[in-house]
Amino acid sequence: MKWTRLGVTGAAALALAVTAGCSATPTASGGKGTDSLTVNMGFSGNTIARNFSPFSVKASQGTFGFQYEPLFSFNNLQGGKFVPWLATKYAWSDGGKKITIDLDKRANWSDGTELTAKDVIFALEYVTKQDLPVDWRFEYEKATATDDHTVVITFDTPGYARLRNIGSIRPVPAKIWKGKDGKTFTNPDPVASGPYKLKRYAAQQLTFEARDDYWKQKVPVKTLKAPVVSSSSEIGKLLSGEVEWSGGAVPDVKKSYVDKDPANHHAWYPTYGGTYMFFNHKKAPFKDVHVRKGLSLAVDRSELADLGNPGMLKPLNLTGLDTKTQGKWIDGKYQDADQPEPELAEAETEFAKAGYEMKDGKLVGKDGKQLSFTILEVTEFADSIQRDKVLAQELKKAGVKVEVQPMPSAQLDTARQQAKFDVLVGGAVFYNTPYNFYRDMLHSDNVGIWTNYGHYKSAKADGILKEMERAGDDATIKKLSAKLQKLMIDEVPAAPLITNGASAQYNSKNWTGWPDEKNPYAIPAPWAGPTDMVQTILSLRPAKAG
Predict the structure, then answer these.
(1) Rounded distance, CA 108 to CA 69, Å?
(2) I want to staple 469 with a disulfide (CB 3.0 to 4.6 A). Which of 107, 161, 325, 357 is the partner?
(3) Residue 46 pLDDT more than 90?
(4) Rounded to the nearest 5°, which phi and psi values hold at 132?
(5) CA–CA dist 10, 194 (Å, integer)
(6) pLDDT digits (tens, 9 = 90+) for 327-363
(7) Confidence at residue 118, expressed as pLDDT on a 0 to 100 scale
(8) What is the DSSP string of 35-56?
């Protein structure tokens, strides 16, 4: 099983309780009237480390969201809708050089003490002073607590582009963390603001207990059990009801899980990002835009989308964005810029512009050699290797010879950073606006890192992104984004392939109110962003007896 972690994502504060029918499916948690839920959170390995430090890259699942909460977030499934959490609102001033954040006055720590602006400032300064590798760290000029519930952060240049990071600040109680080494302290007995306390730690299972004094609302699920679940045992535990909520990528999930009990078994893989074919722009023939266009045109995206899990994923818009979840940002003329099926005649035309012609089923260049290249893939990612092999077969129909070469992850990372590869296939995530997505993939500062895997450099793209960084309103961001969308289609710096879905399976026999496509108030994967996982659990209601 390959678990994909989200960077930062959000959810809207809207829940819809759906009454489920009754089922004879056995359940380990006792049937109707239960106050507990068992979740597969996707622990890596066979044991769980007792590390609940929100500053550690090795923090255990459940550290974020269920325990440590962010200031605010955005629901990317609803076009980046603002989701208040520890903070109720924010306001920019001084041309984006100042942001004022109002904290929810109800917020408190699990020891009963008040969460204040000083705790927010402490966390912000703590990660800077100790140089901690948190995903929300950002540069700022000054941060002050003007009163117990107001935080003011100033910047030397407009800070609009840092909004996602600002919202992702996860405060800690200063009285506990003061004097602690953030790089070594594992925080075994966490005091946090989230809805759960750690009730019991074991190497094979964490047990969380709902806080009676949780500041936001009454917590419906009193006990949350999170055992280690192997990929081989996951489907069996889901079918038996032993696990009621899971984030594993179950193969052919509709057939193997949903269809076994359609009234109670549900799977939803909402889009949080996409998969792309990255070309090495420092190497021929990928420097030629016509080669890149030809390869993109030759891909059968519908076939790729249905590999392993038919119906759960779909082809991406050629702007790189997802039409459904990112539609509000896509320029009108590109709303239908999709290519689900291969367009081989058009591909051949593009290849011809690069000096290639079809001879005996092979695409041959002026040097008489067939267009050939290698896709590097991580050895452990069996599903990705299979996808790449299918992609190779698709391109073979266009006369291109493609080999797939598995290698260890660390070795592939080095090859990517040093531009010692032909083509890579990898993922990128969406954010509350297209700025960060395009910056990750197109900015010259990110060559070989983030998602600019192809070492793409463009003064034009850098200039547009610099303008977007200073944009403080959606209309300006959308206008500038349209220029980058045009660049994606005209230059194909990377070829968008299919959506990435946040895999989630859940059982509504005992609990209803789960998010779904009709009511996307959160990404339901139990490893998703902090507000998503908490909104999901807070929105559940006991199922009515059938």
Answers:
(1) 11
(2) 161
(3) no
(4) -95, 145
(5) 16
(6) 999 999 999 999 999 999 999 999 999 999 999 999 9
(7) 97
(8) -EEEEE---SSSS------TT-
